[in-house]
Amino acid sequence: MAERTKILVVLSRVPYPLDKGDKLRAFHQIKSLSINNDVYLFAVNDSKIHPKAIEVLNEYCKEICIAQLSKLGIALNLLFGLFGSKPFQVYYFHHQSAQHKFNAFYQKINPDAIFCQLIRTAAYTKHIDKVAKTIDYQDAFAKGMERRIKNAPFYLKPFFRSEYERLRKYEHIVFHYFEHHTIISEQDKNYIIHEDNNKIAVIPNGVDLHFYSPIEKAKDFDLVFTGNMSYPPNINCAQFLALEVLPLVWKQRPSTNLLISGTSPSKEVMALHNDKVVVGGWVADIRESYARSKLFLAPMQIGTGLQNKLLEAMAMKIPCITSPLANAPLGAKNGEEILVGENAEAIANLIINLLDNPKQMEALAAHGRAFVEQNYSWHTHNKKLEALILKKESF
Q1: d(CA 312, CA 244)
Q2: In Å, what is the CA distance from 252 to each residue of 237, 247, 248, 256, 392?
Q3: Strands lying side by side in the sheet with 221-226
Q4: CB neighbours (10 Å) of residue 52?
Q5: 198, CA 20 to 30 Å: which among 47, 131, 254, 288?
Q6: Beta-carbon contacts of residue 87 (< 8 Å; ≥ 6 apart)
């Protein structure tokens, strides 16, 4: 029997529960990598660990090491960051106490390869040159921060501008720390400012097509939007839907209602709740929210990366309406597999026309499911990732 390769995975969060995009991506990548390799997980953690997290992750990880970050330590690091040049998210997640713990874990397991998720973890492995290292940028964070500047309150604009510049430079710097590089979409790849960004491998997310499959359920809502509702791009989208799109819809369809479903709704999202806009908050099974709704909306106005919510809704045969920004990395055919609206008026018209045309809804749903089946398999994408980490394939 061939000896299994030891892969050390370095994360900025414990990847369970799957309530954030980076955790979802990391969980499925670990799950796939563990089939043919021994996965060792090092994760920093800034909150209470879910009671089932270690039990679930132990199914796929040979050993787990978690470095707990203290609130005081985070505050001091961020204060120090005021006088530094790295992105504040690096100061938030990289601590000397955690570095010492990582060093001991690395020396103990002596891995054959290292896989880091997000540039905020790069500093932990910067000094290592004995094994091949892979960095998953995931998204182009600098571009995402730049998009947030426009809509930020005036008193936060200087911070966002500063973080944008820091991220842009750091994305370039960390490229040289690693032999291999991945990112979630071709669009995000082009946003990484580096002369060799063409060498970054695009590894999209996937969707569990068995789990996310059609469910027969009474349609209590016309529209649904899901996600982590403390995440600024999702907050922005929820406000856009409730305050700009729906008032236009109500002029022709006054009874149309919207479900906003997802963990940790911010005070801005909670303020949107009324008799026609229901802020549902966290649910044990997000499939319930999809299944209860006729249409899924994700017309993202800011942010980067691939929207997992669109993959899940399409897999469940829920017709989807989105924005050019969100569909660019997805790559679905407008008018056949998804509907794309440029602005509030266009999106409102798409909603009205689709709700009045059940046959079009049915066709869009079927084509959307087929699109996901053909293009977004965790197994296929993660085999490419494994080949890259183990240097079995050149991209």
Answers
A1: 25
A2: 22, 9, 8, 9, 57
A3: 277-281, 258-261, 221-226, 293-298, 320-322, 339-340
A4: 10
A5: 131
A6: 119, 120, 141, 163, 166, 167, 170
- Could you tell me if 100 and 76 are in contact, meaning their C-beta atoms sit under 8 angstroms apart? no
Q: What is the CA radius of gyration of the chain?
A: 21
Q: Which residues contact 103 (CB under 8 A, 6 or more apart)?
A: none
Residue 393 · residue 360 · CB < 8 Å: no
Whether residue 17 contacts residue 50, with contact meaning beta carbons closer than 8 Å, is answered with yes
The class level of CATH for 221-375 reads alpha beta
Cβ pair 155, 137 in contact under 8 A: no
Quick: pLDDT tens for 31-78. 999 999 999 999 999 999 999 999 999 999 999 999 999 999 999 999
* Residue 150 scores a pLDDT above 50: yes
Helix axes 141-151, 232-240, angle to 10 degrees: 40
Can you read off the two tokens belonging to residue 5?
Answer: 């390769």
Preceding amide of 17 cis, omega within 30: yes
Nearest CA to 193 out of 141, 237, 234 is that of: 141
| Residue type at 174 in one-letter notation | V
The conformation of residue 52, written as its DSSP 8-state character, comes to T
CB of 224 closer than 8 Å to CB of 295? yes
Pair of tokens at residue 120: 């905020």
Count of CB atoms within 10 A of residue 189's CB?
20
Q: Give Cα 366 to chain centroid, integer Å.
A: 25
What is the arithmetic mean of pLDDT over 312-337? 97
Please report the sign of the dihedral spanned by the C-alpha atoms of residue 185, residue 187, residue 189, residue 191.
negative
By C-alpha distance, which of 44, 47, 133 is closest to 97? 44
Q: pTM for the complete prediction?
A: 0.88
CATH class of 5-206+377-389: alpha beta
- CATH 3.40.50.2000 residue ranges of the chain are 5-206+377-389, 221-375
How many other CB atoms are found less than 10 A from the CB of residue 140? 25
Structure-token pair, residue 170: 């750091």
Tell me the two tokens of residue 67.
């470095």
Give the tens place of pLDDT for each residue, 14-42.
999 998 899 999 999 999 999 999 999 99
